Input
Amino acid sequence: MYVIMNMIMIVLSVTVFITSFLNCSTICSRSDATQFLNWKVRETFLVLTTLAVLLLLTCLFGSVLGVAGIYSTSYFLTELLSLVLFIHMLVFNVSLLVILIRNGYFSFVCSESIQILFYIAVMWDFFIERVTVQAEVATILTALLAIVIVIVLVRLFRYLRVMNLIFEPVDLGTSLKLFLVFSMLLSVAEIADIFSEGAARMFFILSVVVALASMLAMDLAINKIVDSIPVDGDFSQ
Output
């Protein structure tokens, strides 16, 4: 069963990586695509909500069951949650790619996405041979990312309440680019696990750091608008 699950994970990882790369190429090369996607805040809210829940459950089962000494159950549940996470990322990337293609924004490759591939290749060589890190670091960063996402979701919810009153949406382009890089690195982490557990862990940690940067960029982008919104959403006060 684990062999079949691992094969499925590899196929999902490669597919997520390819679709993330294509989306990243389009977003980096077409500023008008970013302007179009800035209005897709409700979709962003749903994607981040699901991601936060999956990350929190992964930390919960991985840590609590591990401490309790139920390692086989902990491993199975974390692997199952990883499978659900990659399915979620695949749905997100494929849906985004379809939206971009349907609206005429698709771009196969750009210099910025090629640079990202180059950096990933360099890090692959470095991580495979030289770097190791404790598993607890990945768990702590995962929990931190889940908490940060929840905080950002609170701001996004308030932003959603006044979307119909805003003539120009905030620019979420930087956050989206970083999120797509996170998606690529997460896929590479799963693929790297075939060759080196340490390299896989490093790529995962790096992906979480990039995701944290993405959430920070999103928070900064909506911060000014959200802070100016009264708690009850009434601008007449």
In short: DSSP finds eight helices and no strands in the chain. Residues 26 and 117 are 15 Å apart (CA to CA). The chain has a mean pLDDT of 83.
